[in-house]
Amino acid sequence: MKILDVISLKKVYRTGSEDLTVLKEVNLSVNQGTTTVISGESGSGKSTFLYLIGGLDTVTSGKIIFKNINIASSSESDLTGYRCKQLGFIFQFHYLLKDFTAFENVLMPSYIMGIPLQRARLRAEKLLERVGLVARMRHYPVQLSGGERQRVAVARALMNDPVLILADEPTGNLDEKNSIQVKNILFELVNEYGKTMILVSHNPELADAGDRHFHLEHGVLSQV
Ligand SMILES: Nc1ncnc2c1ncn2[C@@H]1O[C@H](COP(=O)(O)OP(=O)(O)OP(=O)(O)O)[C@@H](O)[C@H]1O
Ligand SMILES: [Mg+2]
């Protein structure tokens, strides 16, 4: 079943009098339960593309149809609901909240949604166990290694049982060993929970990890 359809997506950034066309004409269909990996050089527009799908930035033209709703023309309040209920984000720079422990960071999406605390705590604990971080639950982000922070981010992304996971360079700043560990955990969990994922990365190691591989270049996406 198709859950996402990106049609003729275009994104132009305007800075001063300059126009920068980052996405020229991007088309992508995603079926439920599949993993799509998008590679591309630094500056090719990978993060921009994920931000648009996530409703975190506005499109210049084109459509992003998620379950029959065009995200590109949704109101801000609809987008908030979409992000909280349907999406799990893993950002390029983990974006954990520094004043909260690993456990609290994983709990945060459920807390925002108003899920009963008792139930949320059990799920957060289970997810932290799955990413191998039970012993680090009470640590603050500065007290975690880079790989551990990304594993917390993976657990957090799954917390609200999202339909679609958007992963932006999840192994970006890690050494090879940690990069492989985070990649394995992420793909294991995505498969185990039957999630759909779009992952962008310039790491060639990740390219073959998904069901499909696309390359973004000169504002156009092509299947590899
Ligand atoms: N808010 C903005 N205003 C103007 N230009 C921007 C803005 N955000 C990004 N850009 C430009 O758009 C291009 C694509 O940026 P983007 O962050 O999507 O690239 P990327 O493929 O994710 O790169 P990386 O691999 O380094 O993360 C870059 O050239 C960047 O300078
Ligand atoms: Mg990026």
CATH class: Alpha Beta
For CATH, the homologous superfamily is named as P-loop containing nucleotide triphosphate hydrolases
Specify the biggest β-sheet: 6 strands, mixed
Mean pLDDT: 92
Summed up, the domain count is 1
Helix/strand-derived category reads alpha/beta
Query: What is the strand arrangement across the widest sheet?
Result: 6-7-8-3-9-10
* Helix/strand order: EEEHEEHEHHHEHEHEE
By CATH, the architecture is named: 3-Layer(aba) Sandwich
Helical percent range?
Answer: 25-40%
Distance between the termini: 22 Å
Low-confidence stretches: none
* CATH fold title: Rossmann fold
Strand content: 25-35%
Number of strands: 10
Number of helices: 7
* Cα-based radius of gyration, to the nearest Å: 17 Å
Shape: globular
Provide the list of bound ligands, each named once. adenosine-5'-triphosphate, magnesium ion
Description:
The mean pLDDT is 92. With 224 residues, this protein is α/β, with parallel strands linked by helices. It contains seven helices and ten strands. The chain has one domain (32-59, 75-223): Rossmann fold (3-Layer(aba) Sandwich), CATH 3.40.50. 35% of the residues lie in helices and 29% in strands. The structure holds adenosine-5'-triphosphate and magnesium ion. Magnesium ion is lined by residues 46-47, 92, 168-169. Residues 46-47, 92, 168-169 line the site of magnesium ion (MG).
